[in-house]
Specification:
The complex is a heterotrimer of chains A (313), B (274) and C (263). Chain B is mainly alpha-helical. Chain B is 73% helix and 0% strand. Classes of the chains: A mainly alpha (313), B mainly alpha (274), C alpha/beta (263).
Chain lengths: 313, 274, 263
């Protein structure tokens, strides 16, 4: 197991290096000239000598490979420079907003799991019944809603019509609910399907028959054996989903004016605030990759068989 | 033979019907729209549904229905070509890479692993952020991200097929690798790929309108559904229907493709044995 | 001692829902302490018949009719809970595919202990000791390691013997062996057959289902031959072996002999 983690960590580092390199490439093909941007920052009219001095200070007069090395060094120290807009350290700005995004996502994931497990299992056991068909239709709809639209519809329903939830609550706990539900709907829809399919697969297996033959009750068979076997592959998926949702929260944060990372990144893009965009990209990549790794490790811990089978892990 | 089974499946037919309807609207949009979607009539603003403007007008007096109809050209007109291109590219690269093995495979895998280390949204945000907001940049970044993701998918399917017995048999008979790929592997993975791609078109439509909603895609004033939704934000309390209508259009598209995709999945998976 | 009928089956019929009849009005009986063999090719209905006794056929797929009585009690009339009490305890089954019979996600010991605790009110530690005792009695190697292993790390023979151990632990009245040797290689088959012979010596009744005459010949007192859901021949094993009444039985015998010659 340790060997596996070691191998994955190396892979992670390689991918992150590639990511950083890619960001460097992107930054350099960008049409934004950092010096010009700095001029905007200071707001003063600068002379040619001052521009040159600026270039030297920013290290932009160095040959490209030296710039790359500097870039790498900075990236490792999480130094992406200062935001053109707020003039604070770009990464620090982002990190201050990260907890809000994470809160949303954690609540959404927790809510999702609570819904997915019982509905997925019941749907499989009651295959073909009205319950199953209704779930099928609902999950199809749920997977089809555009998140930004769903957010507004929920807002309309709960905040405007029913008035049980506040419309805007900048960073307060009560304001987490609607964004979390909006994020949860597609997650639930897709994963209920998957769990149902897994459970059905497992119900057909020999071990279920033998468990019955040994006298185990249906509740025990499904609740202990089938659940573990059906849910285990979903752990990786949920790990990936976590990372994905953190990124996808961009849109939902916009709808609910939630002070998270994504919303900040979008305004940075519109404002051509490159340091922030770079910091955002690396941060999200890091979260994503770490989530995937944790999910894979969790899955192997639950089902050690996978370690010996190798495959595309 | 797949076509026959599609005909028998109610869900597939429903999905297909929706898609065909949407395609017809997209193609014949200018003829179907009752008014000029760009025509600004300040006097007629915020009108309710009436014979002249079946869905009413927006804040600039433009006919909402016309804008929705023409808007289909942006959503479907961008999503479908992108997905078709991605389909071809990923099929090509994925199957060649998987079949040829190292070192080509190694390189391809490292390349796409780096790209898909980011969720699609992030890639698009990064590239658009660096290169500037324009439809072209949106196109390019979406294609890059999607090609990477689908190449990975194709590759994993090809690897599965490659290890099956009939390929070993074919290798004995056939002379060249290309023949095996084209005649045996590709036809066997295309049905499963179709499922992924049909659903992928729906996802692409949501993504495109999502980016336009954020202001990263089409320019202002363009009657694209996501952009219309973004514009409607400011009138959320007074005229919620401005948000409702474009969203419903997007929903309809996605539902259509999802219905078809799911039905295809049921059709192409081998029957379970008793 | 009166030879009361342990298991008595009359006119058992199994139909696939909306489909063909798979088992046609089968009647059989097993006396306590005796062994009945059911012979037939794949598709003869022999496995379905055994599963039907324990109510293991899903109602959605199969319709089962007929009288099934065990120790005088009507099995087909029992509710789920009563049925579960009998399964694994009074009637135990040893299945065909040991490699897939156990849940791959739990250790073997866990699954053995849970079986014990379903039927007996014992604590985990007690159940653990019971299991170890039984496995050691059967001369299985490194028993504690075995309990602590996952099914996929063990061989088919090991798993099959564990299934037998689980069956024996509950002091059953009847053990059903459904093609128990089919998935194993010849040397392991011999080991399992020896186990079954030991079980016979203990006086436990058995129902041995197989397509291999050699297996049935060694274990069964009485014999039934099934073809396409019908019983085509029955009698004492020694009689049937020496004087098979039908051509089909003769063909089966020859096929088994051939199998043994080649394999």
């Amino acid at each position: 197991m340790l060997r596996y983690i070691g191998k994955r960590m190396i892979g992670l580092v390689i991918v992150l290096l590639g990511v950083v390199a890619l960001s460097f490439v992107i930054a350099n093909v960008s049409t934004v000239d950092p010096v010009e941007a700095y001029k905007r920052m200071t707001g003063a009219n600068t002379s040619k000598e001052e521009i040159e001095a600026m270039r030297e200070e920013m290290g932009l007069d160095q040959p490209i490979h030296i710039q790359f090395v500097n870039w790498l060094g900075d990236a490792v120290r999480f130094d992406f420079g200062k935001s053109f807009v707020t003039k604070n350290d770009a990464m620090a700005d982002l990190l201050s907003r990260l907890p809000y995004t994470l809160l949303q996502v954690v609540v959404a994931m927790a809510f999702s799991v609570l819904v997915i497990v019982p509905i997925g299992i019941l749907s499989a056991i009651k295959k073909g019944t009205l319950f199953d068909k209704v779930v099928h239709a609902l999950t199809l709809a749920g997977a089809s809603f555009p998140p930004f639209w769903l957010g507004y519809m929920l807002l309309l329903l709960f905040a405007v019509q029913l008035k049980i939830l506040p419309v805007t609550s900048y960073g307060q706990l009560s304001g987490v609910i609607l964004p979390a539900i909006t994020l949860a709907v597609p997650i639930i829809s897709i994963n209920v399907r998957m769990l149902r399919a897994n459970v059905l697969d497992n119900l057909n297996q020999d071990y279920v028959l033998y468990a019955k033959a040994r006298g185990l009750s249906n509740r025990k068979i499904v609740g202990k054996h089938v659940l573990k076997n059906a849910a285990a592959p979903m752990i990786t998926i949920l790990g990936q989903t976590f990372g994905y949702t953190v990124a996808g929260a961009v849109i939902v944060e916009n709808v609910f004016a939630w002070p998270g990372v994504g919303g900040y990144a979008v305004s940075a893009i519109i404002a051509r605030d490159l340091p922030v965009v770079n910091a955002y990209v690396i941060l999200i990549a890091l979260i994503f990759v770490v989530c995937n790794l944790l999910a894979d490790i969790a899955q192997i811990a639950i089902n050690p068989k996978l370690l010996t089978e190798g495959g595309d892990l | 033979m797949i076509a026959k089974r599609i005909m028998k499946n109610k869900q597939a037919l429903l999905g297909l019907a929706i898609i065909i309807l949407l395609l017809l609207v997209t193609i014949f949009a200018p003829f179907l729209a009752p008014n000029d979607p760009e025509a600004v009539n300040i006097m007629d603003k915020f009108k309710a549904s009436c014979p002249e403007y079946p869905l009413g007008t927006d804040e600039l007096g433009r006919c909402i229905l016309s804008r929705l109809i023409v808007g289909s050209r942006y959503s479907l007109g961008i999503a479908i070509p992108i997905m078709l291109t991605v389909f071809c590219v990923s099929l090509l690269v994925g199957s060649l890479s998987a079949y040829l093995g190292k070192p080509v495979d190694r390189i391809v895998v490292i390349l796409y692993d780096i790209i898909i280390a980011f969720p699609v949204i992030v890639i698009v945000l990064a590239l658009v952020g660096a290169l500037g907001q324009s439809l072209g940049n949106l196109f390019f970044s979406l294609m890059l991200a999607l090609c990477a993701a689908y190449t990975k998918l194709v590759r994993s399917y090809v690897l599965q097929e490659k290890s099956k017995d009939y390929i070993a048999a074919a290798k004995v008979c056939e002379s060249s690798d290309i023949k095996i790929i084209v005649n045996h592997i590709v036809p066997n993975i295309v049905p499963v790929l179709l499922v992924n791609f049909t659903i992928g078109i729906g996802e692409a439509i949501v993504m495109i309108s999502g980016f336009s909603y954020l202001g990263l895609g089409v320019g202002a004033g363009v009657p694209e559904w996501g952009a219309m939704l973004s514009n409607a934000k400011q009138y959320f309390y007074s005229y919620p229907q401005f948000i409702l209508y474009p969203g419903l259009c997007i929903l309809l598209c996605v539902v259509g493709f999802n219905l078809l995709g799911e039905a295809l999945r049921d059709i192409t998976t081998p029957e379970e044995q008793l | 001692m009166s030879k009361e009928k342990l298991l008595s089956v009359e006119n058992l019929s199994i139909t696939q829902n909306g489909g063909p009849t798979l088992v046609n009005s089968v009647s059989l009986a097993i006396e306590s302490g005796k062994c009945l063999g059911i012979m037939g090719e794949s598709g003869s209905g022999k496995s379905l018949t055994c599963k039907a006794f324990l109510g293991l056929l899903p109602i959605k797929t199969f319709a089962v009719s007929g009288d099934i009585a065990f120790c005088g009690q009507r099995l087909d009339a029992l509710d789920m809970r009563a049925m579960n009490a009998i399964r694994g305890k009074d009637i135990a089954i040893v299945m065909q595919n040991p490699m897939t019979a156990f849940d791959p996600a739990f250790k073997l010991g866990n699954q053995i202990i849970e079986t014990i605790r379903v039927h007996l009110p014992v604590k985990k530690q007690e159940a653990f000791e019971m299991a170890v005792c039984q496995l050691e009695k059967m001369k299985l190697p490194r028993v504690r390691e075995l309990m602590n292993s996952y099914p996929h790390t063990l061989s088919g023979g090991m798993l099959q013997r564990t299934m037998i151990a689980i069956a024996l632990m509950m002091s059953p009245k009847l053990i059903i062996a459904d093609e128990a040797t089919t998935a194993l290689d010849i040397s392991t088959q011999a080991v399992i057959l020896t186990e079954f012979q030991k079980i016979r010596k203990l006086g436990i009744a058995m129902l041995v289902v197989s397509h291999d005459f050699g297996v049935v010949a060694q274990l069964a007192d009485d014999l039934i031959v099934m073809k396409n859901g019908n019983i085509v021949e029955r009698g004492r094993t020694s009689d049937v072996l020496r004087h098979p009444q039908t051509a089909y039985t003769r063909e089966l015998m020859e096929a088994s002999i051939l199998e043994r010659r080649i394999g």
